[in-house]
Amino acid sequence: MRVREKGDRGVVQSVVLFLGVSVLSGALAAGLAIPFAGLAGFTTEKTSDTLQDLPQQFDEVPLKQKSTILAADGSVIATLAEQNRVPVKLKDVAPIMQKAIVAIEDDRFYEHGALDAKGTLRALLQNQSSGSVQQGGSSITQQYVKISLVEKAKTPAEVAAATADTYQRKVAELRYAIAVEKQYSKNEILEKYLNLANFGDGAWGIQAAAQHYFSVNASQLTLPQAAMLAGLVKNPTGYDPTNNPSRAKERRDVVLRRMLQLNVISVSQANSALKTPVIDPNKVRPNKLGCANGPYPFYCEYVVAELEDNAAFGKTKTERANYIKTAGLTIRTSLDPKIQADAQRSIDTHSKPTDQAIAAITIVEPGTGLVKAMAQSRKYGNKRGQTAYNYNAPKTYPGGYGGFQNGSTMKAFTIAAAIQKGIPLNYKINSPSPLPMGGQKFSTCDGTYTTEKGYSPKNSTSNVSDPNMIQAAQKSTNTYFLQLSQRTGLCPIAKIAAALGMYDAQSLGGLDQVASMTLGVGYITPLQLANAYAAFAARGMYCTPWAVTTVKDSANKSVSIPGANCKQVLAPEVADGVNAVLHEVMEPNGTGGKLKFGKSDLAGKTGTIQDAKAVWYAGYSTKLAAAATVADASLPYTKLQNQTLNGKRINDPSGSGTAGPIWEAAMKAALQGYPTTRFVAPTDKTQRGDVKSLPFVNGMNPEDAANKLRQAGFEVAIASGTVNSEETAGTVAYTDPRQRDGAPDGSLVTIYVSNGSKSKPTTPTNTTKPPGTTKPPSTPTTLNPNCPPWNPKYPNCGGRGR
């Protein structure tokens, strides 16, 4: 009996409450604010304050729309979103869908105002008599307001306030609903509601839901499909057909029966729909949101990081990240799917994800800085053979591994510094192996660096004893470049490297200025190295690497982005000289000779760090530049020898033999379709340098000649053995460089000693010639095989120099 009395009392309270709400809604509609002290659950002061504080207009919440990242050809790289939503107009929503949502959520939607008094009373009585919530009393307009307030909430406290089960919140919601009904037509409200509602399993809005569950557009929805989606909004998680198809079907059938009850559909339509499976699992389209679910996750994260650095998207990184995922942006990037596929194919051909060593390559475009491709051997993920590290990027980017020591690829910057100083390409230095350099001083930007006692570097390949710059680059002669960097000073090398984007990718500081700088220093990424070498290809024009080419908002209006950032950091003549030297590395005598392909000019440089823990090949044409590395990326780092690459043991790791084939295959495929291109030939001054006159020493005693040359500011070496010459045996036959051609100040001059084999015979006293005789033809001069590769303008290397 008590239960009945209690139930009766609850019904009476509900009726009183309903009547109060009805009166209140009328008062609100009239713009009044009156207290209802007698209504259960209301506090007069709070209610009055709430009503008077509410605005008379409802500010529409901006829809959170997914942003799309595109490759250069318009293909999708990734979808970024907090909510997977594609807004549509009501005219693009199937009429049966509109009828289904109205039938189950608010069948008198087109007849009442902000509050459906009849529907509310029915729901109150039904819920009270059943002892549980069976029907909702909120109109579609009220539901739209509630969802909007939750969407506007920026903090957990605001979300709690927007969903609090209090009369104050209900009254506020109602007042907003009245404002909405004044601002918009019923169809406009329904459109906003359908675009804002949560349809479960990551689908927000009717278009995303239709595509997700049925692989159709909202305009194509059928009756059973529409009924299923209409049933979801009550409990998107509980009725999710992908997780609980039986509950989803029960709820869908409730919607169908309600539509039949309201004569929206016929009995035959209802029966047919009730027999239809709730979904076809084969047509469910996964919501692949975020970079991790795209085809190029590492490149995608690099792009997102670039976007989050753009102040146009917000004051803080958090604001920018939120804007990027909710503003409905269309972001086009520089990624070329063909070149990316070429790079990844080369990686996959020469390595495996389960290898001990990793392989990575980046390809960029000279003259723009556009990043065309990033590929690596380990895929994105946390399983075996997977990683979250981007081995191509520095630590300034989320997931950036931070690079590896880059070995002799640093020699390119020493070459640039030498050419910039006026040292010619034919500059020779005696380069023995090993070379005692203990206690040697190197000038730096901050003073002097002195090598340790016992420092005695070696060469990894054999070469002529006195190589010039080209020959030294071809064989990557360490002792030559150490001495060359001592002559240029380390500061110019460091400044050129920094201007070309070279910094320590781990510490993010500058590269250390130490004696071994030219042999590799600090940690460098393929992205940095490829982009630095691209500046040589672009004749000294360095462009900051970038990937985002255009951004458009949801209204298809362009959003400001930084764009290309290029500046001339090297004189074109200097870059031309570097290209000439590194081009010879890829000729038959060079370490990269086996990697040459095609008709276009190519240039490159190998790199192997100490103990071969990483090996490199970086190279370029005028159209594309790339840097490939194979390295140990797992602590504790060990030498590559005996590690696995492509499932096989590495026997002799090298830049040309291990990383080189990756570079070659990727670039050979990537450059297909590009026109044949050539480097600009270096100037005569670049080849010969800023020369000064050499004193004439032919015919002198070698030691006297050496002293004379030293006094003139040159270094001197006396070649072993003798050469054929007209000079008296034991005297100077000639010098290299020749006296007539001159040499840069401080450069090495080699003295060759004559054996006197071509000395002229003693002239007879009687020089009278018989009548009719003619002068015998002169014997052609024999060229010295030790002559350097002079410019065609200076071909006369043999004979008696003057």
Automatic annotation (TrEMBL):
It comes from the Bacteria. Residues 757-772 have a biased composition (Low complexity). SUPFAM superfamilies: beta-lactamase/transpeptidase-like, Lysozyme-like. It holds the Pfam family Transpeptidase. SMART domains: PASTA (SM00740). CDD domains: PASTA_pknB. GO terms for molecular function: penicillin binding; peptidoglycan glycosyltransferase activity; serine-type D-Ala-D-Ala carboxypeptidase activity. In the N-terminal section; belongs to the glycosyltransferase 51 family. This is PASTA domain-containing protein.
